[in-house]
Amino acid sequence: MKLEFNYYIKKILLLFLGIFFVGVSTPCYGFEHNEKISIKRNGQEVTFSTEIDYRYDGDNNFRRHYDVGVKVPLSFLGEGWSVGANFRMIYKKSRAGDWNLEKRPHGTIQKTFKSPELEWLPELKWTLRTRQEYRIRENGSYTTRNRIRYKIKSEEEYLKVKPFFGHEIFYDFDLKDFSKNRITLGIQLPEVKGTTPSIYYRFVTDLDDEPVHTLSSLVFKLGF
Q1: Tally of domains within the chain
Q2: Which residues 6+ apart lie within 8 Å of 223 measured at CB?
Q3: What domain range is 219 assigned to?
Q4: What is the pLDDT of residues 35-76, one digit of tens each?
Q5: What's the CATH number where 179 sits?
Q6: Which residue, 14, 145, 198, 221, has fewest beta-carbon neighbours within 10 Å?
Q7: Which helix (H) or strand (E) holds 19?
């Protein structure tokens, strides 16, 4: 068990270093790019997860986060229901170059199901999720936010990839209004030795900005 654990740790570090150097050596000025690693392990009726996320504007790493969590099924509600609890630490770079920390515990309720193949539509996997976030900033301020997301992924491969689409809306309880809208469109690549890579385009609209601010990102993700 120890040897297997060490093997996964080494593989994760090598992959992370790889995408890190690819990210910083590939300028995308005016276009944000994002390198992400997501790891999930199933226990007895429990799923443990961790995530590392680095975001760049060109070669400038302006944001990073680390997340750990646990998810358990809600069998009494039926198949596909689950509830999760996570803790996330987010570091954002200030204009002065300092890193500001935000601690973000959050809880989720999720439902997954599949729709059958139709005459012109493949079998689809649907994921519906609501997330409640508590945002604790370094200066002592505290806010809450709710996020509602749906994601649709094809269960049928096209040229050996599975396309997917997602949409998420953010509601800020302090503003008492919707604050952000996020759309993702991408592909899941074939699995390689237990690793599932995906690439997607992310378009974010900050609704609480005046004028409204938008941001495009290209995200590279490795899932284990």
Answers
A1: 1
A2: 38, 39, 40, 195, 196, 197, 198
A3: 2-223
A4: 898 989 888 789 999 999 999 888 889 999 999 999 999 999
A5: 2.40.160
A6: 14
A7: helix 2-24
